[in-house]
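Hi, here's the filled form for the chain we discussed.

Project: internal
Contact: R.S.
Residues: 234
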Amino acid sequence: MPLPNADPSPWGATLQAVAQRYNQEFSGQPFDLPQEIEEMPLFKDWVAGRLTPHISTPFWEAIKPHKKDHCLDIGCGISFLVYPWRDWDALFHGHDISEFACKAVTARGPQLNSKLFKGMKQAPAHRLQDHYEPQFFDLVIATGVSCYYPADYWDTVLQQVKKVLKPGGHFLFDALNPDAPLAESWAILETYLGAEVQLDSLDQWPALVKSNGGRVVSHRDYELFRLFKVKWDG
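And the returned structure, exactly as it came back:
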């Protein structure tokens, strides 16, 4: 399932690969993998649904969305159907490149809570300003997605996030820890699923944020990812 208006940027092929990888998973289509990959304990955990708790980043431990906050979740997948948005009473805006995820959440989100669900946009993260008003969001979130793209892509994403974030708002994003015990095996699995993972140093992220005028307020390590809390002053 191609992206609408296939992206002409230098990252177009990577965006397409990630979209296809998640369309395939969310729609339940089988992956044709070598036997040695299917024999990996990590693959068996993935198939059985046991891997998710180990690779998910609970961003709300850094900042819990507040009541009536407009929250943009970049690369959200089906998170509105899974995470406790109703408990937070926060307004959810989803943004993902998976056509299947966008259709599934658009179909079911209003049934769960039509007041909190504010829609899904199928689009890449580096084009936020094409879809949202400037300084509109109280909180922007991007978990489980930075690892698929090079630093120059996230340099552009940070510029876009700054434009759509309210003054004083926060950006929460996670980055893969290449030294985590699961990192190498997970990267191999993801590559065979169709989306190559970048095993880059965590040191690049604070510098990248700083070069875009922001600062890392704090960070927290989880089993596979490091969660960064970012803010722009002034």
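Let me know if anything looks off before we file it.
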